Amino acid sequence: MPGLYFHIPFCQKKCGYCDFYSFAPTSAQMDAYKDALCRSIRDFAGDVTEPFDSVYFGGGTPSFFGAERLTAVLRAAKESFSLTDDAEITVECNPGSASPALFRALKKAGVNRVSLGVQSALSHERALLGRVSDSETVKCAAENCRNAGIENLSLDLMLGIPAQTMETLDESLAFLLSLKPQHISAYLLKIEDGTPLAARADTLPLPDEDSVCDLYLHTAEVLESHGLRQYEISNFAHPGFESRHNLHYWHDEAYLGLGPAAHSFWHGKRFFFPRDFEAFLRGDAPVPDGEGGGKDEFCMLSLRLTEGLSDAAFYARFGEHLPEGVFAKAKALEPHGLLTVKDGTIALTKQGFLVSNSVIGSLSLML
User: ∠ CA(347), CA(353), CA(357), 5° rounding?
Assistant: First the structure.
């Protein structure tokens, strides 16, 4: 079954590292956007025949959009599309814009999963990233989420950020684990061109490459020791709480994305809405982005997962077995500790995830 994504391009304040499409809006712009999203839902209604089993509000800061507007969009989706009875419905929230009333309204609307942006529990690290809320605000947001009856909580952690050390990372990990999340996403900081952080990169106290690798491996070890199993390069969950929506991406399955900067893989085609707010309000059509679901793409996405790339899954998808050259190349890399080959499945190790682009690229050459 497919997934449904809504991009909410609004933030109270843009973080220094963020390259996602977002801006500080007026109330009138948010109201107009709500109406445009509902119109876009209706436009695609005739093109959807299967029920969605996941809905994801990302951004930007969806919680800044407000409970009333989020509820209106979700209601429109339920009216025009079918959702499975157990659909995973996620809203990303900034702790600073996540009130008890917001969570109660989201729960009433059917939201059953919340993702809170934390990045770090330490004030000086959060300040360097441009985060506006402190750890006490994060703790209150997590408590308010649970008090509203939304038990499925995901937290974001960032690795390799300015001034981060193994000791400060342990403080952040201890804080996140104290909130008892079902899911943690631990991302390596990537300094994107054009962001405020990029303009100051030469002056920032960034950990060196070896230190970042150590931070990543340590994070994986700590989280798994607390029952959060790694299932993707940057994602950890208690069994049964893996992000269903993101697994659609990594399993190369269908999803429909609505909003400026939202991408889709739909009926074997890829398309996207430009990063243009006014164009979306006008109802401009999305931009075609070619075919999707090819062999290279399927293999690349499968290898991001700890379950790996299996010959059985490849055969089920394409009606043919993985080329012997792929297994030959994988077996040549196995002694280096970058991956394992077992029972027709190639899976990257934690060390392999650190150089995943190179490893996946070398295997793709064998297709």
Answer: 100
Which residue type, as a one-letter code, is found at position 181? Answer: P
345 three-class SS? strand
- Can you tell me which residue has the tokens 């969009």? 73
Model confidence pTM above 0.90: yes
Length of the chain: 367
Distance CA 316, CA 85 (A): 27
Dist CA 179 CA 173 (whole Å): 10
Q: Nearest-5° angle of CA 363, CA 364, CA 367?
A: 105
Q: What is the DSSP string of 20-83?
A: SS-BPPPHHHHHHHHHHHHHHHHHHGGG--SPEEEEEEEES-HHHH-HHHHHHHHHHHHHHS-E
Q: CB under 8 Å to 210, separation ≥6 — which residues?
A: none
Under DSSP, the state recorded for 120 is -
List of domains in the chain: 3-249 (3.20.20.70), 302-364 (no CATH)
Q: What local confidence, expressed as pLDDT, does residue 366 receive?
A: 73
Segment 32-58, tens digit of pLDDT: 999 999 999 999 999 999 999 999 999
- Cα 266 to Cα 123: distance, rounded to the nearest angstrom: 42
- Which uninterrupted H or E stretch holds 302? helix 295-302
Degrees to nearest 5, angle at CA 92 with 349 and 347: 15
User: Which of 149, 161, 92, 160 has the alpha carbon at shortest distance from 124?
Assistant: 161
Q: Which residues of the chain have pLDDT under 70?
A: 16, 18, 132, 365, 367
The span from the CA of 262 to the CA of 286, in Å, is: 9
The first and second tokens of residue 240, run together, are 């049964």
Cβ within 8 Å of residue 98, ≥6 positions away = 63, 114, 116, 141, 144, 145
User: Which residues have C-beta within 8 Å of that of residue 122, sequence separation ≥ 6?
Assistant: 135, 168, 171, 172
